[in-house]
Amino acid sequence: MAERSSPAEVRDALARLVAAGPALRSRPRHERVRALGRALERLRAAGSAERRRLERELPDATGFSAATVREGLARALEPFSAAALDALVERELETLGKRRVAGGFEATAVLLGGGVPTPALPALAGPLVLGSPVLARPSSHDPVTARVFAAALAAEDPALAACLELVSFPSDDAAALGELLAAPCVVAFGSDETMAAVAARLAPAQRFVRHGHRLSVAVLGEGALEGPALADAAAALALDVALWDQQGCLSPVALYVLGVARVPDALLATLDAAFADAGARWPRGRALPEAAARLAVERDTAELRAVAGADVRVAARRHFTLVAEPDAPFRGSPLGRFLRVHPAADPEALLAALAPLGPHLAAVGVAGLGAHAARLAPELAALGAARVCPLGALQAPPLDWCHDQVGVLLPLARLSDLEE
Amino acid sequence: MTERAAIERELLAWMQGEPERRDDARFERLALALFAFQFEANAPYGRFCAARGATPASVRSWRDIPAVPTGAFKELPLRCFPAERRVHVFRTSGTSLARRGELELDTLALYEASLVPSFESGVLPDLGAGERLPMLVLAPSPAEAPDSSLSHMFGVMLERRGAAPSGCFVREGRLELEPLLAGLADAARAEKLLLCGTAFAFVHLLEALEARGQRLSLPAGARLMETGGFKGKARALPRERLHAWLQERLGVPEARCVNQYGMTELASQFYDSVLREPRAPRRKLAPAWTRVLIVDPETGKEVREGEVGAVRIFDLANTGSVLAIATADLGRRSGDGFEVLGREEGAEARGCSIAADELLGG
To answer: Which structural domain, as residue segments, surrounds residue B123?
Structure first.
């Protein structure tokens, strides 16, 4: 990948990939899936050259601490096995029926986003499974992961790897972006503003798979409000918040404590200890100035509310900030390991508090819900949550998790019914 | 006379008598006096300072006065007077979901005394005393948006300096293009004119002109003043690109495009230096009764010249609220002024999560 690709280079790359498409699609799908699975396994294997390279290069490139990168990769890559890829293909493509066929587009452009590394992997592999060559622009915050995956694929299957090209250009290079967006299928990660800007540049016939920014929350039920259950839940939550410094869409930004009118002091103290422990094991990384400034303003605002007499309690440490709120309504978080803790008297209060998040809700991590679990899970899904999972598992989604409540492969596919 | 009244009397004399005169000793004295007053009269602020170990007895320099984060104005009333004395409220923009910040005022006298000389030196430095010019405003009128500090400012300046065909050309959230273009055609007969408003309204104007394939050629004495960011808007532009686009479509050179940095929580505003000091590098100049520090957001310590940090403002005109404000805006000290760094067009957030105030449109 060149340091900076010119618009002509992007155009040429797309043309090469489109030309390579027929040969790619002529190969049996299981061959492509097998090679992609082997490439994923190279990244997944602890101690492999690819994994070591990710661990070595990502801290500098992304700003996350080395310990956070190591732990985050270990947890996030564990589910990304060759067997999981097989299962994903089986679940989404093999069960379509004999008369429905799924094919890939002539080429797929992928605008990767953010500095959280692992979402890039299914985004790059998915179109290749379907037989669609991929032209990807990695995020400037993570130029590493896509390169390492491309190298792993080249080691396993050079012909398949030739159908994945990476380009690099600044986000304000409208000409280069225009060339990239000429692909018949476009996948983009980013803010709602980015999604709107990309959508405005596409023709109606182009497929656009958008992954806008999202956030997650955590819920503690009455079964996890004290004793060892609370300690376990607090440690699990601290891990979910610490990994990727709360930058991922699966990072919880708020904790709701069910069945209480006020967040108990003892619960806060347990969280404080767990977050301090997580901070020592996985230190917070380098904050971008804008994020640090936003965090300082939010932290100071919470402290001002607290001394002004609102029932707000603040634990502000070097690696994290906890703010106990007096009520349930959702409030903002500046990210960077800043967690608000809200009481929610009952499930209705919880659902009412989360309703404004609507389609921005990615996942809900839960612990100790007990009898409320069966009722709350579908309600949370109806609100927009693509995952409801145990606390501590938020940063390790399965390869086939329905990101944004859609499948992994099907949104990238052209489906046809071949009727007799 | 109360302590605050004495401070305001001296400030009014400064603003109206010798607004350009920077006087560090006078600033220090007034800042410490105002801090002592606000520490007592603004109870939440006083407790905030005390919790940080900062009291009138311990604070010896204006630099050490604790700054209130802008977000606090969304949370609680930060005023130094009883609610029943409130005569005006300015509110930050926002959606129905987001909390809006409020600046409560018991007098507009100092507020207006501060805005006028800053506006005149930043945007109208070539106008003689009493001279007027056509002012076409791309923002709602004060009557339509009484809680907008920006509309209020334009209203004050229209009254003091506006000449026919001045007016506001945003109504019910929409740019009134045809009346504006007619007004511009009329105003272009004058030697000098001012087109001013929100950056986002300027983008609407430019898009409309582009869609029509139309280019204007405003007179050499025209100047543009734009302010505000693009938060929550579908389209964002770096300032340099906006100014280049303005030059292309309106015929006003970039050197005559002035950006204003201001916020609802502040009584004073900061303008680019380009009209006042056309040969010097573009930077924001602070009114004499304000000071700006660029600080490391994590430590609160001032960063060195040229380094990026958070903008912290000390504004003596904020007599009725809090004089020291901590913002989440990034800036850089530049000689005797400073720069405010905007977010680049399409710049990627680092992660795929979203700060929820953005989500809620705050």
So the answer is: 109-285
